[in-house]
Amino acid sequence: MKVLLVSANTLTEPYPVYPLGLDYVAAAITGRHEVRIADMNTLSGFDSLLDGRSSGIGWPDDLLAADVIGISLRNIDNTDTTDPKGFFNAHRELIKNIRSSSSALIVLGGSGFTIFPEEIMNALEADYGIIGEGERLSMLLDALENKEDASEISGVITSHRPKPVPLPWNRGFHRNFYNDPSRFAFYLKHGGMLNLQTKRGCKLNCIYCTYPHIEGSVQRLIDPAEVADTALQLQMAGAKYLFITDSTFNTDCVHTLNVAKAFIDAGVSIPWGAFFMPNKMPDDYFRNLRDAGLTHVEFGTESLSNPVLASYRKPYQRHHVFAAHQSAIDAGLHVAHYFLVGGPGENSDTLEETLSGISNLNKSVFFFFCGMRIYPYTKLYDIAVKEGQISRSQSILEPVFYQSPGIGTEQIIRMVKARAEGHPNWIIGSGGGETAGIVSRLHKRGHTGPLWEYLIQ
Known about the structure:
Helix content: 25-40%
Number of helices: 18
Strand content: 15-25%
């Protein structure tokens, strides 16, 4: 069968993200099927997708040649209370245009879809959807070829037929990186960043997070040599910086150190960064990662108030944050902290404790998100239902944010903005157009990587 995989994501702030998930899906179906990938970030719109010469699809009949079109929905919205942006209408328009131009079966998937599968299936009127990891597309294609009932496949959903959340994919997962300049030139031009995974699944139990639902709560590690080989391929393709997309890189410190050693052994020489938990780590942990090329540490700190951290079910306390921060600074790394304020347990005193505590975090950038987006399949969802903030029958496809009984959203934003005044290294939300403009100018001057270190004071 001819299968076209489409990344629907067009979010480019603060920088565009390469759709590596489709590389994994393509690897699972290539061989028995003819696969092409189209990335809406690199195209100028639907007309470019329709024109195979512009899209790089390369089939004689372009879009019309596909038997199956798989569409990955990475984001539903930007989860930012201060500058909310939704993407669902754009997804709807894309699928409407595809329907008008192609008779192919439409299959939806991706992390955004997995959070709201029934609602999105019904709203977008797709033929099939895949909950969880996209490698299940291989099983769906087999069923379609054999004229079997695809709705019996774990994780495959059809319109108006709810399906339980499947167990994580257990048949192995491997990435096919296609060294095709038309696929990644856009990302090399806008920051030089490409990405990779070292594991799937998250064993943490944070109240607001969807990763355990999307990838499962059991960690599945990728062999360090395979990770390093992928990193080397990306480097040879022209990447100037790598970002590791694991939900939290250091949930298995032994594995991360083995990955670092594999990078050195393979000759990976470009800088890289990852998202870290600020908990207790082995001695010289960051120095060892630095020696393997780590340059940027992004801590998912969330709060500097112990009661709030406990409420969020974080496995660390305030003093762990300070120690992890100093360890990264002492290793000569660029450091950023992400704060998610306004969740259960937040009040003016706990927020002030966080804002005041930042004075202990030197040489850093701080990203503040003022409000928790409520997602299904999370503890926060159950809390919001119990408190009467939402009902179980209520749609939350359009963003609904948790309202702490102890402090209102407007007061939170006022307090954060007052403390951020005059400090360019304090970013509220995604930073909006101003931050995007700074990043764009630096990219045009040839700078690569995430670039937030230029804001450090």
